[in-house]
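Q: Convert this sequence to structure tokens.
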Amino acid sequence: MRSLTVVLVVIGIMFGGVSSVFAVNPDIGGAAIHTEEDYFSYGDWGLTVYSYVYDSTSATLPDLGFSLGSGEMLFAYMLDGDNAAIDSVEYFSVYNTYDLPVSDVGYDASHNIVPAGYAAGDYQDPVNYQYSGFTLTTSYNFTGSYMASIEPDEWTLVYYVALADGWGPDVGTVAAGGADEQFVPAPTPEPTTICMLGLGAFALLRKRRRMA
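A:
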């Protein structure tokens, strides 16, 4: 299953995300090297995810209270509840196909960042968040306490810092009684490693088919 995921991600890196590269995101500060907008929906809920990628070459970072070390990249995601929806959102995660080291996971706890040009809703903190190397995901859970969820008129800003050579599309998941998946920016190794992993995955799939 993971081999197939690697193949899909390699294809996504080559062809995915082109239509969203030029999207204009709400301004959260700093000089992002990439931004994009993706929409998730299922049943009666909808969520827009605005993504922001920063690296050590970024002139400035959002006001999150830290700086990036050598080789580190910041991935920030603004989760915006759809005002036209009915149900709230309970969970957001980003897959880390290459299991690259994640040194920090969090959210805008001090609420210093209010996106410029964005004037809808209240801020909702996640109840818990973590990076799991076993499942290769960075996850943010908005359930577990009274009124904890991203309501249709609420938003939040979550982030993680990864040791990576670049970024590419990987699977993001939003869930609330049903899940939707879209490609969002995530950490990747340098291109040569990606190509080798992709070729290895194709070879493994071919071998399995012959054995079958």
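Residues 2-211 form a domain with the Immunoglobulin-like fold (CATH 2.60.40.1170).
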